[in-house]
Design goal:
The protein is of the alpha/beta class and 439 residues long. The chain has 14 helices and 15 strands. It has two domains: 153 residues, Aspartate Aminotransferase, domain 1; 248 residues, Aspartate Aminotransferase, domain 2 (3-Layer(aba) Sandwich), CATH 3.40.640.10. It has a seven-stranded mixed sheet with strand order 2-8-7-6-5-3-4, with helices on both faces. It binds pyridoxal-5'-phosphate.
Length: 439
């Protein structure tokens, strides 16, 4: 029984009702953010905020300095080229060689307004290259807004939860979708948001080989580049490298976000890199939408032109500055972001000590890594209800239901905004929750 909760219960109840959402636990990430902002403002009680994947670190100074310099040079007055500024394209290509060990020409390395736009543009071209195909297969759980993108474009999609199809089982599961002949593209994130599952080489090989066989384009979302903290992928030009499907197929687009690995979310500049072969490939069906049948050409002068005509000029130089420093070894991003994994280890234990369980708890045969997110449940609750109940205890998160997960009991927590000096408060609130609800 809930009583005398850390957050004024009447305000929580009223705000949940006022939100206009039928079920708050099914709200989008941004809707939960808005609701919690409003409860915090009305009660003056600070929440443990775990709903949104915002970097909790400062941006690298090299990026900030490079942007300021570019602004002083007057770039703000000029339209940037849609395909990106030369310096950035070259640094992206070098970065991909040094940290993924694959070769992509600068021509096919293109800045986007975050990986959000990278995904949108990818769907706009990859899902329109063959009139007999219908849309995207999402390997879930996943980032909900990407399905929203496919929906607003009027494409079809299907999805399945990877948890029960790890390792060799992935092949037969993928085949059930690919054999329909209707799949244009496959999208997954690796490490996975929200489960923090990391694909093995065997799994990437299965995906790559099937993409070749069924002529499907893999959109590999590396939003958490290098953030499987069990390995250090951050030494330029030295193994181990960030795993990628690019080792097994030429049918790929990489989306590399600068938001988390480089704490550069606010500048909305990410990277799209298309395999050289795919970039040059001709698809006559693209002419239904674009003036060219070339994949790369349609991406730049069709999709990206229509979306925003390029990326903020100064932000491109900021990212180029960061990449230059990462590439020449003077800035090691891993040293900054590994703090997330260290915090996750402590926070997970606080949940486990107080009656909660981890939902995605295994990466095949190993415990799931400590990363940017973790997933939890509490006995007797569905995730959507647990999320709502936790609001009374000053803890915010999102339900796994909105991520395409089959684990309806689950909730996703993001560690980034919870500072270490809030761990005691988190523990206190979890203890209160457990005392009120323990079966
Ligand atoms: C899996 C995934 N893809 C893409 C994005 C968006 O990245 P960006 O900030 O580069 O648009 C996120 C952000 O949280 C994400 O989690």
């Amino acid at each position: 029984m809930r009583n005398n909760t850390p957050v004024n219960a009447k305000v929580v109840k009223d705000e949940v009702l006022n939100s206009g959402l039928e079920k708050i636990g099914r709200g989008s990430i941004r809707e939960i953010v808005k609701l919690v902002n409003s409860i915090e403002a009305k009660t003056g009680t600070e929440f443990i905020r775990m709903e949104m994947g915002v970097p909790g670190l400062s941006p690298p100074q090299v990026g900030v300095d490079a942007e300021i310099e570019a602004l002083k040079r007057g770039v703000a007055a000029k339209y940037p080229m849609i395909e990106g500024v030369k310096d950035l394209k070259e640094e992206i290509s070098i970065f991909i060689k040094l940290f993924l060990n694959i070769d992509i020409n600068p021509e096919a390395c293109i800045p986007t307004v975050g990986s959000m736009m990278g995904a949108m543009a990818s769907f706009m071209v990859a899902n329109r290259n063959d009139h007999t195909k219908e849309g995207t297969l999402f390997i879930d759980p996943g980032f909900p807004v990407q399905k929203q993108q496919v929906r607003v474009l009027g494409h079809d999609y299907c999805s399945f939860d990877i948890y029960n199809y790890r390792g060799p089982k992935l092949k037969s599961k993928l085949l059930t979708y690919l054999k329909t002949g209707k799949i244009s593209s496959i999208l997954y994130s690796n490490p996975n948001n929200p489960s923090w599952i990391c694909f093995t080489e065997e799994e990437l090989q299965i995906i790559g080989e099937l993409a070749n066989k069924y002529d499907v384009i893999v959109i590999e979302d590396l939003a958490y580049f290098g953030m499987d903290f069990r390995k250090d992928y951050s030494q330029p030009g030295k193994p181990p490298y960030q795993p990628t499907v690019g080792n097994y197929t030429d049918n790929y687009i990489l989306l590399i976000s600068s938001s988390k690995a480089f704490s550069y979310a606010g500048q909305r500049v990410g990277m799209m890199a298309i395999s050289d072969k795919l970039f040059a490939r001709k698809y006559p069906d693209l002419l239904r939408y674009y003036t060219s049948d070339g994949f790369g050409y349609s991406m730049i002068y069709g999709a990206l032109y229509a979306l925003s005509s390029g990326v903020t000029h100064s932000a491109q130089y900021g990212l180029a500055g960061i990449l230059k420093a990462v590439n020449n070894g003077s800035y090691n991003y891993f040293e900054d972001v590994k703090e997330y994994g260290e915090k996750a280890k402590i926070m997970k234990q606080l949940f486990l000590n107080n009656g909660f369980s981890m939902v995605y708890d295994k990466d095949i045969d190993q415990p799931i890594a400590d990363g940017f997110y973790f997933t939890f449940s509490y006995p007797g609750f569905l995730g959507v209800d647990l999320l709502e109940e936790l609001l009374y205890y000053g803890i915010s998160a999102i339900s796994l239901e909105i991520t395409g997960s089959s684990r309806k009991e689950g909730v996703r927590a993001c560690v980034s905004l919870v500072q270490r000096n809030k761990f005691n408060l988190l523990e206190e609130r979890l203890m209160r929750f457990n005392a009120d609800h323990s079966p």
